[in-house]
Design a protein that fits this description.
single chain; 270 residues; alpha/beta; Protein-Tyrosine Phosphatase, Chain A; 6-stranded mixed sheet; globular
Length: 270
């Protein structure tokens, strides 16, 4: 089971976690928890819809990403900036310099690109910087609101994706559904990724007539910009290695108390 895609003109990966069923048989309330990719390209209609649906927007991007492509200013919506990485991280941020640099580095090494992304995911659960801001994210969810709280990064895949994993785990969504929801990003962004591939082929001077180089480059792009089951699996393996299980991660990694977890269930389950 996966989250429900919300119909916007320009926002292809904005989804409502509402409707996801938990292991206890309860459902996540609709219209309360939204995950998304970049909001910068929102149309006027999209902005009006965001205003009608959301109360808080959390931006997981770096400061440089925020400056390059700021969120639209929406009246009556509160913004929170909680960067998940310390500084520019090639690939994951999609900053202009980062995207070209990392794709050039792994242009002929899909395996290098794959391992690079696996390591980024593992870092989410052991680095104090992302852990601290994911805790702040959870704390923002603890207040009762009339409208939705929306969190996003650039693609809505990695940083925002793991934010969704955390809340889905706390609320009791089964692991198969968590993986399905994570991988659904590939469907939502398939056209965008095709365009990114073409743009980066041009910027990296990849000759489309060189079939071998083109295929290697496309595989590398897919590793960097696609949602992969093994990335999330590697993250869970790291959690098991360091914290024994996800409950241990919530308690000892994120420092989320049982009281906070129960409060989230009261607010978002029905």
């Amino acid at each position: 089971m996966k989250s429900e895609r919300i119909d916007f003109e320009k926002l292809n990966n904005t989804r409502d976690l509402g409707g996801l069923i938990t292991k206890s048989g309860k459902k996540i309330r609709k219209g309360r928890l939204f995950r998304s990719g970049i909001l910068h390209k929102a149309s006027e209609s999209d902005v009006r819809k965001l205003q009608s649906l959301t109360e808080v927007i959390i931006d997981f991007r770096s400061s440089k990403e925020l400056i390059e492509r700021p969120d639209p200013s929406i009246e009556s919506v509160t913004y929170a900036h909680l960067p998940i990485i310390r500084e520019l991280t090639e690939g994951i941020t999609r900053e202009k310099e980062a995207s070209v640099s990392v794709t050039k580095k792994y242009a002929e090494s899909p395996e290098g690109a794959r391992q690079y992304m696996i390591n980024i995911y593992k870092n989410f659960v052991i680095d104090e910087f992302p852990l601290g801001n994911y805790l702040k994210f959870i704390d923002l969810l603890l207040e009762e609101r009339e409208k939705a709280i929306l969190w996003h990064c650039t693609a809505g895949k990695d940083r925002a994706g793991f934010g969704a994993v955390i809340i889905e785990e706390i609320l009791g969504v089964d692991r198969d559904s968590i993986f399905e929801d994570y991988l659904y990003t590939n469907e939502c962004l398939k056209d965008e990724i095709k365009q990114i591939t073409l743009n980066l082929m041009y910027k990296n001077n990849i000759d489309s007539h060189d079939i071998n180089k083109t295929l290697l480059f496309q595989k590398s792009i897919d590793c960097i910009f696609g949602a992969k089951e093994e990335y999330l699996s590697g993250l869970y393996e790291k959690i098991q290695e360091v914290y024994k299980d996800f409950n241990g991660f919530l308690k000892d990694g994120l420092k989320i108390s049982e009281e906070k977890q129960e409060r989230l269930r009261e607010l978002y389950l029905e």
